[in-house]
Write a structure and sequence with these properties.
With about 400 residues, the protein is an alpha+beta fold. The chain is about 30% helix and about 30% strand.
């Protein structure tokens, strides 16, 4: 054992592909004082005691605040240092000030200025192939093309362990989970040439995701693990990998997993159905008003003319119903049906569900209303609209009520 710094804590070590050792730690003086992030480069075969560590950055952290890090990561040419200050008092209590700097391997004197890491925090993304993909992790969200909510408060960050052409860092951050709902979820951000380039969300659950860790193998495949809080005050351990053999094994859904997803979807829709009477009571007002306005016209002229006015009144009443539905569920067309309970839905299927479910709901409601009125020689426009509103409201509440109670 070779003593290097008696005041050093939280040491991080990385070997590069040439067996050179890169080390960083926090110099934390006894008592209250300014802390320094130190870095040392030990070429293969060198005498460790003969090399002087260099201060890369100096931190002033008050005694009431917390400090995470430093965390060290390296890619082919660049070393990265990450840290975070957790504010625990004052108006900014709870804020996380995450920052990083980078410099060429072995040359801390060329360190960049500290910068924030800004990543998406939404749950609706466009995934694309990465232009430079040294780490084989599949399609990603390109940060330069990302729109929507963003965050720079990254916690529990862990860079990948082995040197590669780019750097990956797993972390925990607050993400949009449902409409106006946020959860602490686990994500991965990728760096190249000192800049954050792409991003991948890993978890999408209502539970707290925490304690992430990340490894990569010599072929560039990633292996991630994290914990998720259960309702029984215990934690479930999750594991994910981009390695083909593991991915193939995990993609084979078991009967138990399918049963769990089916139970989540069924329970979520059942909760939504409870809001159907309220939705129907609100949405039926405008259609009834339309029928009332058309009532005098349905008594004019021959039976054919009356039928034409009845048809127009039904069309306008259904249109008024849909206007009201979009007012009650303004994000309906932005939401992929069932995505609140099913973590991953294929992009093509997402678009089919996004527009197909509302169309199917309308057509089914029209068919049911027609079957129990005009098909039975009952031309009551009132009965037709009441049946239509009942069926449409029932299905709509079952699928889309999550947009309401998920925002409460």
């Amino acid at each position: 054992m070779i003593p290097v710094d008696p005041e050093g804590i939280r040491a991080q070590l990385r070997y590069d592909q040439d067996d050179n050792l890169h080390a960083t730690w926090l110099q934390y003086p006894l008592g209250y004082g300014r802390s320094q992030i130190l870095y040392a480069y030990y070429p293969a075969g060198s005498e460790i005691s003969s090399i002087t560590p260099q201060a890369v950055y100096e931190l002033s952290v008050g005694p009431s605040n917390g400090l995470d890090g430093p965390a060290l990561g390296i890619d082919t040419d660049t070393a990265y240092l990450f840290w975070a200050v957790i504010v625990r008092t004052g108006l900014d209590a709870g804020a996380v000030q995450t920052a990083y700097l980078h410099f060429p391997l072995g040359e801390p004197g060329q360190a960049s200025k500290p910068a924030k890491i800004v990543v998406p925090s939404d749950y609706s993304f466009e995934f694309e192939p990465a232009a430079k993909e040294s780490l084989l992790a599949g399609n990603r969200v390109l940060i330069e093309n990302a729109v929507g909510f963003r965050t720079h408060e990254l916690k529990e960050f862990v860079p990948n362990n082995l040197q590669a052409g780019e750097l990956a860092m797993i972390f925990r951050a607050q993400n949009q989970y449902l409409w106006r709902k946020v959860r602490d979820l686990v994500d991965v951000v990728y760096f190249d040439a000192g800049q954050a380039t792409s991003y991948q969300p890993l978890t999408f659950t209502p539970a707290l995701s925490t304690s992430p860790n990340l490894y990569n193998d010599s072929e560039g495949y990633l292996y991630a693990t994290w914990l998720e809080k259960l309702e029984t005050d215990s934690y479930a351990v999750y594991f994910a990998s981009s390695a083909p053999a593991i991915e193939e094994t995990f993609n084979q859904s078991s009967g138990r997993e399918l049963g769990r997803v089916l139970a989540q979807v069924s329970f979520g829709m059942l909760v939504g159905v409870l809001m159907a009477p309220i939705a129907a009571g609100v949405l039926v007002i405008a259609p009834l008003a339309i029928l009332f306005l058309f009532a005098p016209f349905r008594k004019i002229g021959s039976q054919r003319v009356q039928d034409i006015f009845s048809g127009f009144s039904l069309l306008f009443a259904i249109a008024a119903f849909w206007v009201g539905k979009f007012a009650v569920f303004p994000a309906m067309l932005d939401y992929v049906p069932f995505s609140a309970w099913i973590p991953e839905i294929a992009p093509l299927l997402s678009e089919i569900l996004r527009y197909g479910v509302p169309i199917f709901t309308a057509l089914l409601a029209v068919f049911v209303a027609w079957f129990y009125t005009y098909h039975q020689s009952n031309k009551s426009t009132l009965y037709f609209i009441l049946i239509y509103v009942g069926v449409d409201s029932l299905i709509t509440a079952a699928i889309y009520a999550v947009l309401i109670y998920g925002a409460i």
